[in-house]
Amino acid sequence: MKNKANSNPPLKKGLLVNIEGIDGAGKSLLIEKLLEHFAKKRLNVVFCKDPDNQKIGPKILSILGQFKDEITEEAKFLLLAAGRMQTCQKVVIPALNKNSLVIAHRLTDSALAYQGYGQKVNKQMIKDVSKWVLEGIVPDITFYIKIDLKTARARMSNNTTSLVSFEKKNDLFWINVIKGFDEICKDRKNVICLDGHLKPQEVFEQAVTILEKHIIELTK
Prior knowledge:
By secondary structure, this protein is an alpha/beta fold. The protein has eight helices and five strands; from the N terminus they run βαβααβααβααβα. It has a single domain (20-218), classed as Rossmann fold, CATH 3.40.50.300. Strands 2-3-1-4-5 form a five-stranded parallel beta sheet, sandwiched between helices.
């Protein structure tokens, strides 16, 4: 017999939580802790990572890696957007329709910050395509883990799996990406800013406290 002592009541509505921030901010560790926490609570949790949840994602990353010096920045954005749309249609929307908690490792905010602000791809084009890709879905909560470039750089040096090798970019690129995230997240009611300089456990405790409150409201 299953132990239901730590079980949460089922959600009455899907909840989409997006984790954003530059490389080295601590997104993966926070997500790992959140998934472990809610698994113990026996809540139906679905994880998606931009853009490699589906079979198409790794192939897109392989193409970007193989032809990185030949593909234009606009084409790179569209390829990544294709993977993001596949994940949205095959993972996110079905999970939300089943009233699941969906935790996303990046969504369209990263596209705008990295490729709009960082790579100078047309921002309005990115916004328009991103809205189409997500089919109008807006995350219920976006956790933006904010961190300074020096600290992030130190962490990036130990990371060999960063998306499309952005970690090799110069400091000006990263300064623009951080500026992008700051502008994107400013004054948005669904964005919660977390201090990436804190210990991972402290970041997790802040995030899970906020999430638990939303989950309680969705189980009433």
